[in-house]
């Protein structure tokens, strides 16, 4: 076998971050419904979904195939309220105007699971946005970038221009906190190839 674990994801960002970290893995998408429960905090929501994604893929695997499964989830929240992925242009513009000139939080949880064994880690990052005008938000939607992103933006893309400051994990905002993920995988005996 030419890989060391399964990634329960369709996210090209997670794939890229793990590749850059030097891992060899195989993607098996987990299609888990992303619906917030009444009273659920942004941190708990990310943890539950990361757990469900890793769990869904684990269940599909042969119990004898003992490679670990990694699942992750990222959510954006402001004033404790979770902003999902935008439904349409108007929704994305509303989200971006809400984020304008303020700080918001990005929670990412990562779960590694092998059989009944499971470990979880999470990051919370505060992101400070400068002012975003309606015209900028509309033009940004038209670029195509926000459509599949929590909070309707990508820090690693065009939205980088609005980011005044971040406190926490940059890779966590992009979708997978690399440092914490490496620590979890090490506990399961998975090491990346060394960068040369
Ligand atoms: C805030 C932010 C989110 N995102 C992305 C990361 C995630 O892919 C996405 C949040 O959605 P998720 O539901 O965490 O992940 P996903 O549906 O893209 O992928 P999968 O469930 O198959 O693993 O938003 C960025 O790429 N940049 C950012 O700055």
From TrEMBL:
Q: Which SUPFAM superfamilies match?
A: ITPase-like
Q: What is its EC number?
A: 3.6.1.9
Site Important for substrate specificity: list residues. Answer: 13, 74, 156
Query: What InterPro entries does the database record attribute to this sequence?
Result: ITPase-like_fam, Maf-like
Q: Spell out where the chain crosses the membrane.
A: none
- List GO BP terms, alphabetically: nucleotide metabolic process
Sorted alphabetically, the Gene Ontology cellular component annotations on this record are:
cytoplasm
Please give the name of this protein.
Answer: dTTP/UTP pyrophosphatase
Question: What is the protein's species of origin?
Answer: Panacagrimonas perspica
């Amino acid at each position: 076998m030419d890989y060391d674990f399964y990634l329960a994801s369709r996210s090209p960002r997670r794939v890229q971050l793990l590749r850059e970290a030097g891992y060899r893995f195989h993607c098996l998408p987990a299609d888990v419904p992303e619906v917030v429960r009444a009273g659920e905090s942004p941190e708990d929501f990310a943890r539950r979904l990361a757990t469900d994604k890793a769990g869904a893929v684990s269940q599909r695997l042969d119990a004898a195939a003992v490679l670990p499964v990694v699942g992750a989830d990222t959510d954006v929240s402001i004033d404790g309220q979770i902003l999902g992925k935008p439904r349409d242009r108007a929704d994305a513009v509303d989200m971006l105007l809400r984020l304008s000139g303020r700080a918001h939080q990005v929670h990412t949880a990562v779960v590694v699971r092998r059989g009944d064994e499971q470990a979880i880690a999470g990051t919370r990052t505060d992101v400070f946005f400068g002012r975003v005008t309606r015209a900028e938000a509309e033009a940004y939607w038209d670029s195509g970038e926000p459509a599949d992103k929590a909070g309707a933006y990508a820090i690693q893309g065009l939205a980088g221009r609005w980011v005044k400051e971040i406190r926490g994990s940059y890779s966590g905002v992009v979708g997978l906190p690399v440092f914490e993920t490496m620590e979890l995988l090490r506990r399961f005996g998975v090491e990346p190839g060394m960068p040369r």
